Amino acid sequence: xKRRMNGVLTDNGNWRVRVERNGDEVxxxxxxxxxxxxxxxxxxxxxxxxxxxxxxxxxSYTIDEIVVTATRTEKDTLKVPAAISVVTAEDxxxxxxxxxxxxxxxxxxxxxARTHGMSEVANGITIRGFGESNILFLYDGMVMNDGYxxxxxxxxxxVEDVERIEVLRxxxxxLYGGKAVGxxxxxxxxxxxxxxxxxxxxxxxxxxxxxxxxxSKKVDEKWSVGFGYENKQTDGWMKKYSYATRGTxxxxxxxxxxxxxxxxxxxxxxxxxxxIPGTGASEDNTLNFKVKYQFTPDQSLTYRYTHDRYxxxxxxxxxxxxxxxxxxxxxxxxxxxxxxxxxxxxDFTDYDGRRVTDRHALQYKDDRNKLIINAGLTHVxxxxxxxxxxxxxxxxxxxxxxxxxxxxxxxQKTWDFGAHTLVTGFDFQRDSMxxxxxxxxxxxxxxxxxxxxxKMGGNDLVAAVFLSDEYKINxxxxxxxxxxxxxxxxxxxxxxxPSSYKRHEDASYTELSPKLVLEYFPDPKTTLYxxxxxSFNPPRLYQLYSEPAYGYHGNPALTPEKSNTFEFGGKKQFxxxxxxxxxxxxxxxxxxxxxxxxxxxGNRHYINLNRTKKVGGEIELxxxxxxxxxxxxxxxYERATDGDGDRIYYIPQHTLHLxxxxxxxxxxxxLEGQYISxxxxxxxxxxxxxxxDAFFIANCGxxxxxxxxxxxxxxxxxxxxxxYWQWYKARGRSVMxxxxxxx
Length: 743
Known about the structure:
Radius of gyration: 26 Å
Structural class: mainly beta
Oligomer: single chain
Low-confidence stretches: 1-63
């Protein structure tokens, strides 16, 4: 299930952002649906305006959302010279969000490919065409990008522990270093500084559950503690096919079956569908603990611990192949063309995967002296999957596991010198990973290791200092200058097999990341800006050191990717009811890491071989028709090309989000939609397995506060049950009902 975001006005008069998501069908149909959805959303809101107008005083609206991510200092979003959006705990609650990627999906420039929500492990999100390893994810100051691939584990964060999420789009390496190339997603957890109890339970389609409880207690004037537990599970949706491309035997070797379905996949090649390996199921358990000590009203020390245990697997495999009596069978032979294909249970098995993550975050904050110190550890104890040939999982198989650790410490100090605001500090981060392949006695039992096939791994380290100067020239003009110096080192890379051991050479690089921003305020409710930022991203550890028996091999000689981003934009607040934001950007990356052509053994190697360019623009419009009714629409156009000027098709050219919301106690409701253009190449086919179709999908929800502290909710995603493919088959319509209470 997914959700979208948009701007709304809350009861206290602050502008808030909302969320939701999902997808649909073919580009032509999707565009038509998008236009209809726009008319429907805006029409509903406009029709409601007259009904509420008599009781409204529209001049009383104020908008004062404060963010910290863009400049590392508190600043009104309207005055931030960058594109930034905010998602609040209220937004997450209203949309009954199950994973945080759902909460981001309706923001400008965001494409969420995680079509299976909590059971999705294959895909992630992109922001302005940059994938997760080029986006910095922070959770209470601690980096959440894993040390192995740089991607984000969306299930490792309990959605009910989140106070707010700030999403800064554009280059931010001058403040945050590598990975902050396309965006920074800053997740801020709730403080345990008040007495509260919140519980919730939701149930929906495909045996989907989300249950949890969060407690916080202010023990005295100094101490406060918090505890949270969340369980999420689902039987999931069908997403994969079991298929064969051709027959290989001249005669059958078992029971002769019929029922294979001849079709094509997205590339146009012929395949024969044998069945499905089941639906993509998952179970997730997340535990949070936090304790805060308040030295003085301005000084505090907070420790936060999160433990997440996640498993993904398949349930209820199906075979399309039947014997002469019409009974489904999982072992036998089937005629494909002029030859037989001999099949068994191995054709219907799927991965059995797991992730186990511990996160420790310690933060010292001195508001009076404007000093913040963060230190922490993210330990991915297990992250991998096993495979085998029997559906019961009792036979032998193979396991792949890639645990990692990230240590981080940073210090930030802010000074105010008249017209200058200086932010300076240092940052230290060390990543390590191992890649372990082993044989299992029972492939559903990851601990039943009988032998190790190979091990590999390595480390990297980044030490940096940064300085930023925000200079307010006068009431209309300002300038931001930023500079960060990073020293990057990769070391202790190794590969072990039962018959050999190899060490890789160490190497280090130094990179300067400058940023220049010019800002102009023609009036108090208008901000115009232009910026240039240089970013870099070191190779991911698996790109350096992984060396599997087959597939993509690491390259210890890789150098960091480098990007230059130009952006200019503007923000305008009209009559305290309407907000308009515009931004245009040009990002060019050199030394892009890609893969080589296959060698004689069919293996590919990571190499610095490519250049990419992303040119695009965003427009965002939010409007409050009344205190109860609001609407939003945002659109992003982007053209991504490689070094030869050819389009990069997996990055969508058109992204549209829109919606309308009603919020008047005891009721609240929303209707939102998303259109994503096709990512298929010209010679590929939409509507088939392994295609990337255009889609428009609508989602809606309603909440009723039936008691002072209790609320009923109903959400429907993929409202029109549209069929589409995002490589794998996306979810159909899903319904979720829930109840929550808070005291």
